[in-house]
Amino acid sequence: MSVGRVYNATKWVDTAGNVIRAHGGGFLQQDGYFYWFGENRTGGKLVSCYRSRDLATWEFCNDVVTFDTHPELNGCNAERPKVIFNDRTGKYVMWLHWENGIDYSQARCAVLVSDKVDGDYTYIKSFRPLGHMSRDCTLFKDEDGTAYFISAARENADLNVYRLTEDYQDIACLEQVLWPGQKREAPALVKRGDYYFLMTSGCTGWTPNQGKYAYSRSITGPWSALMDIGSPTTFDTQPTYILTISGSEETTYLYVGDRWDPSDYHNSTYVFLPLSFPSETSMQLQWASSLSIDVETGRVAVEQNRSELFRLRMNWRYLVAAEDGQIVGSRLSYSDQRQLWALEETADGAVRIKHWASGKYAEPENGSREPGAKIVLGDKADHRRQEWNVLKVGRDYVKLQNRFSGLVMELDGGRHGAVVQSALDSGAHGAWNSQSVLLAEVYQ
Ligand code: DGJ
Fold first, then answer.
1. How far apart are CA 329 and CA 77, in angstroms?
2. What count of other Cβ atoms lies within 10 Å of the Cβ of residue 308?
3. Which of 12, 67, 195, 347 has its CA 20 to 30 A from that of 252?
4. Are residues 283 and 367 in the same domain?
């Protein structure tokens, strides 16, 4: 079999040339195929299924769940579908996150079954497991056949681990509440050696955040504390699954993530990234622009391109230069080139912040030294107004202090406003502070 080549975060198409619509996906291996189930939000479709032998060439199988499947599914929002096979009943069982299609207030899961892996799935029911809210979720079948459903509960504050009944179609019990109050979502679970690894994201809607993982000897715990993995934006992705490739030479583990585009869901893409394990209990995630995967041997080779560009994120908004040259906070958009910036270092350790699309530089409007003055773009000039000190205010965050005015960039009005200059505040730093800037590297 040929080696598959995957180009991450680009538009992936199936063998018929159609865009692959399978977000929040889950996988199942059978008869030499990887089956991929995921969200399809087009034309009354809910979950679509594709299959591949090499993880690179995907053949469309079926729209396995549609609005027509059941009245409760008509117009609903179905997220993060996962499928496992039940050896006792011979049925494929799918669990997903079910919402009414208007908002996220229902917080229910739904169960569907099929006799065929890519058949039309029959709707069983939607419900809140043991009365708990249930949003982002995953399903895991352990080596002994016991299956678990893991889902975000209590307004996403907790991550609940439920054991399923023997037919996998219902909840047997709540085994554990993981990291109460720490607000984790997008769970993805894998077993490697004697340890289970659970990867999750924070809760920031469609905007990427720092992924974390934990390990345990048993699904029912105790689990370790949460540890950071990947980059502060998890390479601009959110977890959905961890694939195991059991090759003849190696067993490798691939992180599957969605690169959601908050400005246009349908512009979202996928990534397969290599996971590595420096020790029995530690896991690392690496960026790969592309990778070749040999499912036969389990070998994965990585290629990386550095873009040398950044997005500047303040309070979950991304800085963009508007038509009039003003810099404002905006929703992340992967197609908006105006959100890209280059940082040019000066000889004495400051930076010039160059707007990539226009070639202009960030500076206070009219050379102002006043607090509240807007930050705008100006033609390149050799003066301190275009030089910014990079003040580190946390492991990932900086404040940008103008060398001429001595004031720092601030996102005015919380999130919706323009970027202005203000006196350096001494308050809490971090992602929610309106002066803190994440220099988010652009991973292509
Ligand atoms: C993040 C979740 O992980 C996604 O599946 C989706 O529910 C979005 N939130 C909605 O904002």
1. 29
2. 10
3. 12
4. no
